[in-house]
Amino acid sequence: MSAPISNVRPDPDKVLTDIVDYVCEYRVDSKLALETARNCLIDTLGCGLEALSYPACTKLMGPIVPSTIVPNGAKVPGTQFQLDPVQAAFNIGAMIR
Prior knowledge:
By secondary structure, the chain is mainly alpha-helical. It has one domain. It has 4 helices and 2 strands. Strands 1-2 form a two-stranded antiparallel sheet.
Protein backbone atom coordinates (compact mmCIF):
# COMPACT_ATOMS: atom_id res chain seq x y z
CA MET A 1 0.00 0.00 0.00
CA SER A 2 1.31 3.49 -0.79
CA ALA A 3 2.10 6.13 1.80
CA PRO A 4 -0.71 8.53 2.69
CA ILE A 5 -0.69 11.96 1.06
CA SER A 6 0.16 14.72 3.52
CA ASN A 7 -2.40 17.45 4.06
CA VAL A 8 0.18 19.80 5.59
CA ARG A 9 0.70 22.83 3.39
CA PRO A 10 4.35 23.77 2.90
CA ASP A 11 5.54 27.27 3.70
CA PRO A 12 5.20 29.67 0.74
CA ASP A 13 8.36 30.30 -1.25
CA LYS A 14 10.42 33.48 -0.82
CA VAL A 15 9.33 35.06 -4.12
CA LEU A 16 5.68 34.79 -3.13
CA THR A 17 6.26 36.27 0.33
CA ASP A 18 8.35 39.10 -1.18
CA ILE A 19 5.48 39.98 -3.53
CA VAL A 20 2.96 39.92 -0.68
CA ASP A 21 5.20 42.12 1.48
CA TYR A 22 5.60 44.61 -1.38
CA VAL A 23 1.86 44.77 -2.08
CA CYS A 24 0.87 45.10 1.56
CA GLU A 25 3.59 47.39 2.87
CA TYR A 26 4.92 49.62 0.06
CA ARG A 27 3.58 53.18 0.15
CA VAL A 28 3.51 55.27 -3.01
CA ASP A 29 4.59 58.84 -2.26
CA SER A 30 4.73 60.13 -5.84
CA LYS A 31 1.76 62.25 -6.84
CA LEU A 32 2.64 61.62 -10.50
CA ALA A 33 2.59 57.84 -9.98
CA LEU A 34 -0.84 57.98 -8.32
CA GLU A 35 -2.21 60.26 -11.05
CA THR A 36 -0.84 57.95 -13.76
CA ALA A 37 -2.38 54.91 -12.07
CA ARG A 38 -5.72 56.74 -11.85
CA ASN A 39 -5.60 57.64 -15.55
CA CYS A 40 -4.77 54.03 -16.47
CA LEU A 41 -7.73 52.78 -14.43
CA ILE A 42 -10.14 55.27 -16.02
CA ASP A 43 -8.86 54.38 -19.51
CA THR A 44 -9.23 50.66 -18.81
CA LEU A 45 -12.80 51.10 -17.56
CA GLY A 46 -13.67 53.25 -20.58
CA CYS A 47 -12.25 50.70 -23.02
CA GLY A 48 -14.10 47.91 -21.24
CA LEU A 49 -17.43 49.71 -21.38
CA GLU A 50 -16.89 50.55 -25.07
CA ALA A 51 -16.19 46.86 -25.78
CA LEU A 52 -19.74 46.05 -24.66
CA SER A 53 -20.97 47.50 -27.97
CA TYR A 54 -19.14 44.75 -29.91
CA PRO A 55 -20.83 41.34 -30.31
CA ALA A 56 -17.42 39.63 -30.59
CA CYS A 57 -16.86 40.62 -26.96
CA THR A 58 -20.33 40.20 -25.50
CA LYS A 59 -20.79 36.67 -26.89
CA LEU A 60 -17.94 35.56 -24.60
CA MET A 61 -19.58 37.03 -21.53
CA GLY A 62 -22.13 35.89 -18.98
CA PRO A 63 -22.55 32.94 -16.66
CA ILE A 64 -21.52 29.46 -17.72
CA VAL A 65 -25.06 28.27 -17.06
CA PRO A 66 -27.53 30.75 -18.64
CA SER A 67 -29.65 32.84 -16.22
CA THR A 68 -27.48 31.92 -13.24
CA ILE A 69 -27.19 34.64 -10.60
CA VAL A 70 -24.71 34.27 -7.76
CA PRO A 71 -25.94 35.98 -4.57
CA ASN A 72 -23.13 38.18 -3.23
CA GLY A 73 -21.19 37.45 -6.44
CA ALA A 74 -18.92 39.85 -8.29
CA LYS A 75 -20.66 42.44 -10.47
CA VAL A 76 -19.39 42.85 -14.03
CA PRO A 77 -19.34 46.61 -14.80
CA GLY A 78 -21.77 47.75 -17.48
CA THR A 79 -23.76 44.50 -17.45
CA GLN A 80 -26.51 42.85 -15.44
CA PHE A 81 -24.19 39.96 -14.59
CA GLN A 82 -23.43 39.00 -11.01
CA LEU A 83 -21.11 36.02 -11.24
CA ASP A 84 -18.78 33.81 -9.27
CA PRO A 85 -15.36 35.47 -8.90
CA VAL A 86 -13.60 33.32 -11.50
CA GLN A 87 -16.22 33.85 -14.21
CA ALA A 88 -16.47 37.57 -13.36
CA ALA A 89 -12.69 37.92 -13.72
CA PHE A 90 -12.89 36.27 -17.14
CA ASN A 91 -15.73 38.58 -18.20
CA ILE A 92 -13.92 41.71 -17.05
CA GLY A 93 -10.73 40.50 -18.72
CA ALA A 94 -12.60 39.94 -21.98
CA MET A 95 -13.99 43.48 -21.76
CA ILE A 96 -10.67 45.20 -21.23
CA ARG A 97 -8.74 43.16 -23.79
